[in-house]
Design brief:
TIM Barrel, 2 domains, five-stranded mixed beta sheet
């Protein structure tokens, strides 16, 4: 599984230590000191970005840390087992990384730092939607109460990959004596916002107009993920969404959360069934039920002609996959030939399961949005029109207030995920 992002040209500037005697940025890989370690990063003020506070604790999972062999100015270090471990050292016109920054970034984006588990309920012969939404919500609350807290990735804001990219660029700037300017988005836009909605049930489908009406009020477009074989689909409603500029994507076959666990024959049967709706509505995107994902799924999506997937998150806790999970970045990237667009704002379901009130939900979204804006990333929000989630007037107020918060931000490029995927793929291909 090859991953590519907007920083590839800069990754290529990092060379193995010993390759050339001149100036540059190098990786020391001589003696492994620690493997698979969660390290707290302590930054030299020279390379600390303004979106990281002076004494802020930022942890990162590093696959390999190597023994430091260079005496010089320490730009980044960590405290591990009561020892100060230099992670980046500058000596003259050379900067030495005692871990591989590119390997670490790709490792995190591939989510190799945890092992996903299949949930017991997916073995049941009946669909879990036979339980009312309120009952499922209560069960999840109870289950999440007994999970152990972890410090990586952090939630709701995870900064590790963006920080590693920032630090790497600062090191390259120091060696080359020039400022690097990243112009990722067009029209002088600083960042991107994508609105999306997962329609899991027939009841949720009927409530689509409740949310769409608010978006129309502010002339905003969004992406609606629908399930192909789980409820009756009103194509007139979908046509009206498409005419206003919205996008339809697929949210699986029947939302029983078994898709990635099926054998090849069964999963192929589901993809063939979904293909009819995909063709009818000219669908380009996919989001897996409950965001369950795997390398095999990514490969199948590309094989079946999907432009993009949006089943990953930058960071999430209390999910169906693992206590903590996520690709740790707020930017889109490519998995082989498939564009991946991670969810980057906490889902309404996650916040409601944690008993957030409407004011706290909006504040959480706004705080995360400000971080994304500072790093120039993509804010992807996902709400559900089901009655126990955002599909009632009380809970919908949070989403309404969020739209009011973003509507006048001219620095934001508000587009559908399909538009983002088309632009990102073209940009990523040019980058290489």
């Amino acid at each position: 599984m090859a991953i590519k992002d907007f920083w590839e040209r800069y990754y290529r500037k990092v060379k193995p230590l010993g390759e050339g005697n001149g100036h540059g940025v190098f990786v020391n890989k001589n003696t492994v000191l620690y493997r698979n370690t969660t390290a707290r990063l302590i930054l030299n003020p020279k390379i600390r970005p303004e979106w990281v506070k002076e004494k802020e604790h930022i942890h990162v999972f590093i696959p390999k840390i190597y023994r430091n062999e260079t005496k010089g100015e320490v730009l980044l270090h960590s405290r591990i087992r009561n020892q100060d471990i230099p992670l980046i050292v500058k000596k003259g016109n050379r900067i030495i990384f005692n871990f591989d920054p590119v390997e670490t970034i790709k490792f995190l984006m591939k989510e190799r730092y945890y092992r996903p588990k299949r949930r017991l309920y997916t073995y049941l012969p009946v669909h879990f939607h036979i339980l009312p939404g309120s009952s499922r919500k209560l069960m999840k609350k109870i289950l999440f109460m007994f999970r152990k807290e972890k410090n990586f990735p952090s939630w709701p804001v995870e900064k590790s990959v963006e920080l590693l990219r920032h630090v790497l660029l600062k090191c390259i700037e120091a060696i080359e004596g020039r400022k690097i300017k990243l112009d990722i988005w067009p029209k002088n836009k600083k960042y991107v916002i994508c609105l999306s909605h997962d329609v899991e049930t027939g009841g949720g489908f009927k409530r689509i107009p409740l949310i769409s009406k608010i978006e129309r009020k502010y002339s905003l477009v969004s992406s609606w993920s629908i399930v192909s074989n789980h409820y009756k689909i009103d194509f007139r409603l979908l046509d009206s969404l498409i005419k206003k500029g919205d996008e339809i994507l697929l949210h699986g076959y029947n939302h029983d959360n078994k898709l990635i666990s099926l054998d090849d024959k069964k999963i192929e049967k589901r993809f063939n069934s979904m293909a009819r709706l995909k063709e009818k509505l000219k669908i380009k995107g996919f989001r897996s039920p409950c965001l369950l994902r795997s390398e095999r799924l990514y490969s199948l999506l590309e094989k079946n002609g999907y432009l993009y997937d949006s089943s990953s998150v930058d960071t999430e806790k209390d999910s169906q996959i693992s206590e903590r999970n996520g690709c740790c970045t707020v930017f889109p990237y490519m998995i082989d030939g498939l564009v991946e667009i991670p969810l980057t704002l906490p889902q309404d379901a996650r916040l409601l399961f944690r008993s957030y009130n409407m004011e706290k939900m909006v504040k959480t979204w706004a705080n995360k949005l400000e971080f994304i804006k500072k790093v120039g990333g993509v804010a992807v929000i996902n709400t559900h029109p089901e009655s126990h989630l955002s599909g009632n007037r009380k809970n919908l107020k949070a989403y309404h207030d969020f739209l009011k918060y973003i509507r006048n931000d001219r620095s934001a490029w508000v587009i559908t995920m399909k538009e983002l995927a088309e632009y990102s793929k073209q940009k990523l291909i040019k980058t290489h």
